Amino acid sequence: MSTAASGSKKSKEKEQQEIVATFQKLREEQKAIAGKSAELQVEQKSHELVIETLKEVEKERKCFRMIGGVLVERTVGEVLPALEQNRDQITKLVENLQSQIIAKGKEINDFREKHNIRFQGETEGEQKSSNGAESSNKSKSSGVLVEKSA
Asked: Where is this region: Disordered (predicted)?
């Protein structure tokens, strides 16, 4: 009977490792989305700065634009509408990524609650009172996940 009990214990341990791995994968996905969002926000600010600068310049003035690694000579009148269109597309992408971050955060919190995952040093009351807000818990924890025994 001890072999059956040890086999059951090993399968439960393996299941717990899979749960933790899935949780960490979800967090990594959220971090990747946030990183891409931050990168696009920097690009958006850069576009806005160039647009504001070019608005003050004559439309016929010659300017250069990098397109696919090639420097192309154009006029401000030709470049400005394209930059504004790119900025608008980047803005839409950033908004989409922000909604994905929120959705992924909800998915992480649901998964965390479903499997009763908590951070080391976090009490059950802290988890419920924070409503799964990871940002407040990150400063308190060392990032180690612990499953509460059932």
From this structure: 117-150
